[in-house]
């Protein structure tokens, strides 16, 4: 049997403090520390605790070259190698190891930067419920607990030396910009008109043109910037109350300007999924349309292979798209929202996405305001 180490592996020495009560009562130093070795392998997606003997063995086995298992066992031990194979930190060419080997191959084929892959896989949430205290944020309580926050603006020079700029003249975009705010009080029964939903999706996520840059290499022109013109972010729609659209999950096709049905639901199911998606931020759940922004990493990493900045580019991509979505919703007289506090694992399961290939970044949405102010909204008030 041949074996090798998984493609990406980081090991964290995690320290836990403990108290020796007998030493404390004897008047001696009682505080001690225990170190646990935690292996973080993106193809697994879960932490694995290993011992120092396993750590040493991993350092002796190549992640590229296949080696004879028997030779590795001579350097370590059969028991250590068996445990690492069971953990999935070592891979084998045997039929029994096919499933784990395939997951590792998926990771290798996407050309992730190792640190980025690890940060992505181990920052995902599943079945997380956001603290309800976010609904009514109290700066007084925060200041009492943590002291005053850093000032909202900083000065990097003497005020007397600062060059004062002219007051901006009012222009056409100002009306929309100043009306934009994050909605947290959506009308729970209002329906989003189909024409409005269509404009939002086409202008925010749709293609405005296509160009062949090289044989069989096409790029799309969209209304938001994207690194390398690649536009890797896919839009998945959760329709709750969109006129003429049955409740459920859809994929928005940016070239055909069409919703591709994925999962049919009733309104009770869409509300339940919406709540799970946004980690129980119930002030967003009544939005009649939500859009999941999920980056297709192979599109971006095809060009930026194992690139230190590629992961940032994916996050920027979602930021550009969400702001365009915000402004289009504001133009339509609708409040909007975007949140990264989402349950990626639940979203992946609902949409059938592989987190090594499709990186869920955020969820945005919009709808008519209820007129209530049950939850704080930061609106511009001249």
CATH class of the largest domain: Alpha Beta
Number of helices: 13
Total beta-strand segments: 14
Topology as a string of helices (H) and strands (E): EEHEEHEHHEHHHHHEEEEEHEHHEHE
Mean pLDDT: 93
Helix content: 25-40%
Taking pLDDT < 50 over at least 5 consecutive residues as the criterion, the unreliable ranges are none
Q: Give the termini separation.
A: 73 Å
Assembly annotation: single chain
What percentage of amino acids are in beta strands?
A: 15-25%
User: What structural class do helix, strand and pairing data support?
Assistant: alpha+beta
Q: What about the largest sheet?
A: 6 strands, antiparallel
For this structure, the CATH topology of the largest domain is NADH Oxidase
Please name the CATH architecture of the largest domain: 3-Layer(aba) Sandwich
Question: How large, in whole angstroms, is the Cα Rg?
Answer: 26 Å
**Could you give the order of strands across the largest sheet?**
11-10-9-12-14-13
Number of domains: 2
**CATH homology superfamily of the largest domain:** NADH Oxidase
- Approximate shape: globular
């Amino acid at each position: 049997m041949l074996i090798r180490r998984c493609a990406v592996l980081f090991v964290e020495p995690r320290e836990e403090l403990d108290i020796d009560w007998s030493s404390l009562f004897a008047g001696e130093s009682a505080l001690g520390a225990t170190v646990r070795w935690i292996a973080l392998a993106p193809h697994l997606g879960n932490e694995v605790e290993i011992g120092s003997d396993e750590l040493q063995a991993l350092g002796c086995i190549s992640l590229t070259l296949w080696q004879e298992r028997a030779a590795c066992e001579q350097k370590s031990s059969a028991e250590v190698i068996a445990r690492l194979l069971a953990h999935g930190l070592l891979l084998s060419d045997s039929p029994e190891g096919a499933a784990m080997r395939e997951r590792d191959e998926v990771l290798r084929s996407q050309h992730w930067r190792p640190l980025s892959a690890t940060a992505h896989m181990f920052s995902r949430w599943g079945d997380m419920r956001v603290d309800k205290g976010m609904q009514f944020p109290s700066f007084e309580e925060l200041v009492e607990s943590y002291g005053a926050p850093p000032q909202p603006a900083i000065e990097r020079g003497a005020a007397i030396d600062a060059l004062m700029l002219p007051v901006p003249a009012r222009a056409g975009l100002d009306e929309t910009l100043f009306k934009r705010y994050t909605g947290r009080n959506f009308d729970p029964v209002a329906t989003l008109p189909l024409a409005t939903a269509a404009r939002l999706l086409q202008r925010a996520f749709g293609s405005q043109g296509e160009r062949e840059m090289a044989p069989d290499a096409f790029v799309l022109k969209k209304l938001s910037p994207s690194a390398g013109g690649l536009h890797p972010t896919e839009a998945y729609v959760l329709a709750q109350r969109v006129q003429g659209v049955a409740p459920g999950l859809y994929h928005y096709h940016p070239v055909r300007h069409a919703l591709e049905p994925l999962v049919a639901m009733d309104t009770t199911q869409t509300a339940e999924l919406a709540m799970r998606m946004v980690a129980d931020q119930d002030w967003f759940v009544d939005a009649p349309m939500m859009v999941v922004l999920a980056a297709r990493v192979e599109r971006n990493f095809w060009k930026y292979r194992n690139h230190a900045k590629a992961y940032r580019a994916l996050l920027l991509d979602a930021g550009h798209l969400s702001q365009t979505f915000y402004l289009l919703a504001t133009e339509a007289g609708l409040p909007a929202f975007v949140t990264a506090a989402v349950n990626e694992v639940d979203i992946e399961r609902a949409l059938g996405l592989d987190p090594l290939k499709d990186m869920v970044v955020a969820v945005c949405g919009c709808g008519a305001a209820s007129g209530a102010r049950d939850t704080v909204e930061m609106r511009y008030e001249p």
